[in-house]
């Protein structure tokens, strides 16, 4: 099986376009904008010069998509999964989060969802087993372990603006 | 009332109304440029709300607006972009100039205008609006289309041609003799060539000199450098806009990126002021008499642009549909037509040139996005479905890509 190759075309004033033709002769291309955004294009069957789909992605969305496309990937933010139905996820607090500056006890996380917060990653350090008096800050990444439903609920709570 | 208070009130009212108009335009997804022009008409002489005190500041703001428009345009491109496009696409550029500048010139002669106004109107009808076109292509999801590089390279060539054309206009408007004019042109070409050469060779060095981690310092250095070079260029009769464009070309890489982000809001503000200024100097009452010539010119130059795009895309080996799309996309004229006409308006030649250019741009900035969208479906319908009837298309889709594959490889690799 030959290695698929990307050809690139400069788009002056916009960025560059990278093309890929798949084994099934479908064309895909990515337009790399100079501001870090990307546009993902798939071409029509009846007119290979024209896009049937053209989706503009921000740098963050692009990163998430790359994650999903990686062969080693299973599901978002997953650290590990067990056969016992427990999952572990990294959940990031946004900088405008409601919890910015509030203590961990206020989230009533364990009571509400049954998940445990194993550690908090802040800049270059990791704080293991934070207690209820631990003060959260925007940008913190919380590692939570629980059931699938529990982790989903925790993500909802932590996602509060 | 105190004069500075009056100025603040007037200028504030202008900017605020522009902001509200911009929001209105955003809601309907069309370019705010025509609205800014209309706002200028409303505030100007013979308009609804004539302004007095802020005229002078608006004039200076307009001057800065043109400089920033061209600087940002230069920042969009690297010197190697320009040179490589010039090498590969010059026939398309020449055809573009011939097909689209000539109708403008012919119209000016029909109206009995002088030679200078003729050259100006030729420029107005020649240069497409890269801003409007880039936005339209993004909105229609066509950035990935195969005809897009063709469209962009025509825009690049037009912008490069501006660097030669604007000094000529500036010299003509200043009424210099043929000898002095030729000297100006030689200087302009020499400087442009030198800047391209230096940017290609030593672009990194220039960028390092300008580069700064602190956005504030970067902003001041880039803006100061640009205004200074623009001023010197104006003094040499080369046109401030071209000086700014060349500064933009000379800056590359990270500096260009940073400067682009920092200067975008400034450009938006002053470019809006420039469009208002242009409207201010146009008496609304003078538009109706030139409406018919403007419409005729718009129709003719829409068709010539479509032909240009069709031919250029054909030359690049793109299928019929893509050729029509390329043509339709190129129709929009906008900011640069106004920049060219603005030079003539400030110099005070041919009183009906401003109104004609205003009406012309108003028509084409509104029609442009529509032709971009509908030229291809219309043309496909009119030229008949030689390929296959739509009923068969649905069943044939599986077999089609195979048949097209050789074409695909032949052209996609050319880049």
UniProtKB/TrEMBL annotation, chain A:
Please give the InterPro entries that the UniProt record associates with this protein.
AAE_transporter, KhtT, KhtT-like_N, RCK_C, RCK_C_sf
In terms of PROSITE patterns, this protein maps to: RCK_C
Q: Pfam families, alphabetically?
A: KhtT_N, TrkA_C
Q: Which residues form the RCK C-terminal domain?
A: 76-160
Q: Which PANTHER family does this UniProt record tie to the protein?
A: K(+)_H(+) ANTIPORTER SUBUNIT KHTT
What this protein is called in its record is Potassium transporter TrkA
Organism name: Streptomyces halobius
From the broadest rank down, the organism's phylogenetic lineage runs:
Bacteria, Bacillati, Actinomycetota, Actinomycetes, Kitasatosporales
Automatic annotation (TrEMBL), chain B:
Q: What is its main location?
A: membrane
User: Which ranges of the sequence are coiled-coil?
Assistant: none
Q: Which topology term describes how it sits in the membrane?
A: Multi-pass membrane protein
The lineage's top-level taxon is Bacteria
Compartment annotation: Membrane
- Membrane-spanning residues where? 6-26, 33-51, 57-78, 150-173, 179-198, 218-234, 293-312, 324-347, 353-372
UniProt keywords, alphabetically: Membrane, Transmembrane, Transmembrane helix, Transport
Q: Where does the Cation/H+ exchanger transmembrane domain lie? A: 15-371
InterPro entries in the record: Cation/H_exchanger_TM (IPR006153), Na+/solute_symporter_sf (IPR038770)
Under the heading Pfam families, the entry gives:
Na_H_Exchanger
Name of this chain's protein? Cation:proton antiporter
Organism of origin: Streptomyces halobius
